[in-house]
Amino acid sequence: MNMRDSEYVMGILMDRGFRKAKSADEADVIIFNSCSVRKHAEDKLFSNIGDLWKLKKRKPGLVIGLMGCTAQSYKDAALERAPLLDFVCGTGNESDLPAIIGDILKDRCRMVAADKVNEKKHEIFPAYRDETFKTFVSIGEGCNNFCSYCIVPYVRGKERSRDAKDIIREIDDLGSRGFKEVMLLGQNVNSYGRGEGTDFVKLLCEINKLKGIERIRFMTSHPKDASIKLFEAMRDLDKVCEHLHLPLQSGSDRILKLMNRKYTVKDYLKLAESYRKILPQGAITTDIIVGFPSETEKDLKETVKVMKAAGFDSAYTFKYSPRPPARSCKLKDNVSEALKDKRLKTIMDIQCRIAEDINARLIGQPAGILVDGCGSKDPRKLTGRTRTNKVVVFDGRPDLVGKFVDVKILSATPYALKGKIV
Ligand code: 5AD
Ligand code: SF4
């Protein structure tokens, strides 16, 4: 989501005559786009801003700004914590950026604009995209779920769905410009259009009809809102890829309750089982947090049990960190850092073995790949992704980047597959 926001801001600035600098050294304006989902990212951000003091000394006219979730959460306080900052731009104020930068260049003032966190974004379509054949498309902003550990509802505001006609128009345009794959983005795509007489499956059906685009992906699905109807659409709509990102967070009902996730392990596994029945070749990936307040070894064992039962193709794993004003901050962060590290390693090792088994079963099988890159040292080493979002490495001509090829899988590791063009 942040990558898409950076690209959007780059687009609106380029439409006003700005150009992309090759490096920070040659830039006149540097904008940090920030994530505050975990504390680590926030600390790294402020240390990176601080690192610019030498450059600022050499180029006193340099404008340094902060956008994204940390900007929204800190507002004026970011100017205090980072004296080098000229401006702070909240998550709803991105379209104000050209004006903010213009004012600073004119008056050399420091500015904070963070008053539009709950507003719908202006439907402007800057043409600029970082990539030429696959890209992100935001279908909505914000989140109403208030999982107890999560800062997102506070910094991204309440859930707002973009109008379907604007999304369709954007994707139609991308298709006519040669894009082959879109990734639809929302904090909870399955609640798209709720209360507005439409829903996510209807949106998928509309996008599936568009010419040009050949692959449609989406993330993230909340288990309380993902449905059999969605899985059937994934099966029946030819362009929708067979990959579901379904964050589990914990395999313990007690912890899930404390997390305010609104489903039980039984609900989750039933959902995963329906998915497997409807899409036997489909992949499921997940997010898991270890070390949530009061988590015991028994809770962790339950998480491991669910991981094995669900058979995740991959998992993003995180150590819990308190994110004020998220509600879990009221609970004592009582799992030590050492224990969090140990638990993280435990589940990463388990996941590694699960993925190894799943991927080994693909050896000898054919797969359709969208080639997405070639090696910088050896441009004949290509990489691409299957419809199930697995990375495949294989030999081929660099001009295949951005095109579809058929490969046969020759070998597998937990993280990637090796293939041969057929
Ligand atoms: N601590 C650790 N991980 C978190 N996530 C969200 N908030 C926190 C937190 N406070 C993780 C969740 C979410 C992913 C994007 O980040 O697993 O799904
Ligand atoms: Fe955060 Fe929960 Fe919303 Fe995801 S669904 S963004 S974890 S509050």
Topology summary:
Elements: H1 2-15, E1 29-34, H2 39-50, H3 53-58, E2 63-68, H4 69-74, H5 76-81, E3 87-89, H6 97-107, E4 111-113, E5 134-138, E6 140-141, H7 152-156, E7 160-161, H8 164-176, E8 181-185, H9 200-208, E9 215-219, H10 228-236, E10 243-245, H11 253-258, H12 265-278, E11 283-290, H13 297-310, E12 314-319, H14 337-360, E13 366-374, E14 381-385, E15 391-395, E16 404-412, E17 417-421
Parallel strand pairs: 1-2, 2-3, 3-4, 5-8, 8-9, 10-11, 11-12, 15-17
Antiparallel strand pairs: 6-7, 13-14, 13-16, 14-15, 16-17
Helix pairs in contact: 10-12, 13-14
This protein binds 5'-deoxyadenosine (5AD) and iron/sulfur cluster.
Can you characterise this structure?
- There is one protein chain.
- This protein is an alpha/beta fold.
- The protein has three domains: 2-113, Rossmann fold, CATH 3.40.50.12160; 134-360, Alpha-Beta Horseshoe (pyruvate-formate lyase- activating enzyme), CATH 3.80.30; 366-421, Beta Barrel (OB fold (Dihydrolipoamide Acetyltransferase, E2P)), CATH 2.40.50.140.
- Helices cover 35% and strands 21% of the residues.
- The chain has 14 helices and 17 strands.
- The chain has a five-stranded mixed β-barrel. It has a four-stranded parallel sheet with strand order 1-2-3-4, with helices on both faces.
- Helix 10 runs parallel beside helix 12 and helix 13 packs parallel to helix 14.
- The protein is globular and about 65 Å long.
- The mean pLDDT is 96.
- The structure holds 5'-deoxyadenosine (5AD) and iron/sulfur cluster.
